[in-house]
Design goal:
13 helices, mainly alpha, five-stranded parallel beta sheet, about 5% strand, Rossmann fold
């Protein structure tokens, strides 16, 4: 992926690598219902191999939801924020039961990653016939990957996150699931500094909570470590072992590449907004010039000039937003490379 793609469009290789970033299904999950049975709840914490587990489940014929799917349907964020408000912020108007989760997950038979892993006990209770797969990883190996992929993204000031949410619709729907749901809710952290302090303890507590919830139903739980191959998973799910290797997704590289594309898309939307504002400004200036040439009154001229001034101010604001976005993108690249 190159900077040229920012200005001239993403090439076919980038689109093929991240197809979910180039489609918006625009589905309102609040109107959805279950259409396939829920079979597998993958409740391992993010960065434990959730993408590999998702790929494995789909090879076994189990359509599976993963956090990255929110990018292909940003409106998913709306219903997950409802769940977050109910669990972590005392909203009693939402009941986290099968009827609710059927709206968010009714189109799939499995789930992995966040947001579902924020609701382990609730999902286990909602789907008593579903098997539970808890992918675990050594905390010391897990933490650097998790910190790089998720915590660093919240190092930017809160005002900047709110600004992005204000000017970009997709960001406004997806980002609260991370900072309000995961960071503040699931990990109980006010900011990224506290998130780092609490991460390993909450990771261990999360795994213990899943084990405790299923203490009286051990037959429903498989603790799985990547590298164990197909055997344990297929035995647990009653599936035949596929005639192919167990998938191994390089989640760190895949996630970093995905975020680069996403940030460039946000920048493109800023630039498009700037161009639209410039177009409106040019039309306003042309109209004002035509009005003057046709001898219309000074009052109208003053009015048109005022309108043009407002439009030019908006263009300046949009240009400023674009500059902030470019600076933030550059800072993020340096941060991910360990140079900031």
């Amino acid at each position: 992926m190159s900077l040229a793609e920012f200005f001239f469009g993403f090439n076919s290789a980038t689109r093929a690598e991240h197809p979910h970033l180039f489609v918006n299904h625009d589905i309102d999950r609040s109107q959805c219902r279950r259409v396939v049975p829920m079979e597998v709840l993958g409740l391992g914490m993010g960065r434990t191999g959730t993408a590999s587990m998702r790929a494995a489940l789909e090879i076994l014929g189990i359509p599976t939801y993963h956090g990255a799917d929110m990018h292909s349907n940003p409106r998913d964020g709306d219903i997950w924020v409802e769940a977050i408000n109910a669990k972590y912020y005392g909203d009693t108007s939402v009941k986290l039961d099968a009827d609710f989760f059927d709206k968010a997950l009714g189109h799939v038979s499995g789930c992995t990653d966040y947001p579902p892993n924020m609701f382990g006990p609730e999902l286990i209770a909602s789907y008593p016939a579903a098997k539970v797969v808890l992918v675990t990883r050594d905390p010391e190996a897990w933490y650097p990957s998790f910190e790089r992929a998720l915590i660093r993204g919240q190092d930017s000031p809160a005002w900047f996150r709110r600004f992005l949410a204000l000017v970009d619709d997709q960001t406004s729907r997806v980002q609260p699931v991370i900072w309000r749901g995961m960071m503040q809710g699931q990990f109980g952290a006010r900011d990224s500094v506290e998130w780092r302090r609490r991460a390993k303890a909450v990771y261990a507590a999360h795994n213990d909570e899943i084990r405790e919830t299923l203490r009286d139903q051990p037959e429903r739980l498989l603790e799985y470590r990547l590298g164990s191959g197909w055997g344990p998973l297929c035995d647990f799910l009653g599936k035949e072992v596929p005639d192919r290797d167990f998938p191994r997704v390089n989640e760190t590289a895949q996630h970093d590449a995905m975020i680069r594309v996403f940030v460039m898309q946000v920048g493109q939307r800023f630039l498009l907004g700037l161009l639209k504002a410039a177009g409106v400004g040019l039309v306003a200036v042309a109209a004002w010039r035509w009005w003057r040439l046709n001898g219309h009154g000074a009052g109208v001229e003053v009015f048109v000039m005022q309108v043009g001034r407002v439009l030019l101010d908006n263009m300046a604001n949009t240009a400023g937003a674009m500059a902030v976005a470019v600076i933030a993108w550059r800072w993020w690249r340096l941060k991910m490379d360990g140079r900031a």
